[in-house]
Amino acid sequence: MSIWESLAVFAAGVGAGTINTIVGSGTLITFPVLLATGLPPVTANVSNTLGLVPGSISGAIGYRKELKGQRARIMRLGAVSLVGGLGGAILLLTLPSDSFNTIVPVLIGLALVLVVLQPRLAAALRARREAAGGDTGHPDGGPVLLTGMLLSSAYGGYFGAAQGVLYLGLMGLLLHEDLQRTNAVKNVVAALVNGVAAVFFLFVADFDWTAVVLIAVGSTLGGQIGAKVGRRLPPTVLRAVIVAVGIIAIVQLLLR
């Protein structure tokens, strides 16, 4: 890897760490850059996954204030997400990518619809539950959210582009929390999924360790930047950023 390629990978890591903390989809920045340096797709993918783990942890630390009071929720969602992430990592090395490439743009599109309509849908659900006897629903989303997080995490362990958009769409609809606190949980879950996938890959896949180190350092810096920027965004602006990133993700995936 030349000095210019190294600088490009590092800059992509900073950008990915920043956007992952705010929304997700940082893989759509780093993965193409790694491919441009000449790495094979699977090597680029697993190197990217391992490199982004420190950035995910950095972003979660940056959002520690919004994590207060959510330990039980994180434990519950984190447990199913770990299972899903490991399953996705196994799928990466055993299945052809065509099947996932077909469904991924659809999943991201559905997530964007959930993000945009979340305030109205959540209000309608609360009104219906209260009319049915004052039941406000499961405080942690119940089996529906657990299932959704399991499947989204399987996708995250497989590739990970826009997994944050999927998480935010699901949690925004099914949790009674503001978007910033939901985003904080998303950062922790993403760190867990990337982490378990990376540990699995360590034993069965080949890495480019130069790429891993460059992305790790860059994404750690980006995670802190993203936490500061994301926390200052009003919910409406944050939703707009999520939608913009999601649309870019769909277009890029369709053009691959």
What can you tell me about this protein's structure?
With 256 residues, this protein is mainly α. It has one domain (3-255). The protein contains ten helices and no strands. α1 (3-22) runs parallel beside α9 (209-232).
What labels describe this entry?
single chain; 256 residues; mainly alpha; 82% helix
Radius of gyration over all CA atoms, rounded: 17 Å
Task: Briefly note the structural class of the backbone.
Answer: mainly alpha
| N-end to C-end Cα span | 23 Å
Count of distinct structural domains: 1
Describe the structure concisely for a colleague.
82% of the residues lie in helices and 0% in strands.
Write the layout of secondary structure elements.
Elements: H1 3-22, H2 27-36, H3 41-62, H4 71-94, H5 98-131, H6 142-158, H7 163-174, H8 179-204, H9 209-232, H10 235-255
Helix pairs in contact: 1-2, 1-3, 1-9, 2-3, 3-8, 3-9, 4-6, 4-8, 5-7, 5-10, 6-7, 6-8, 7-8
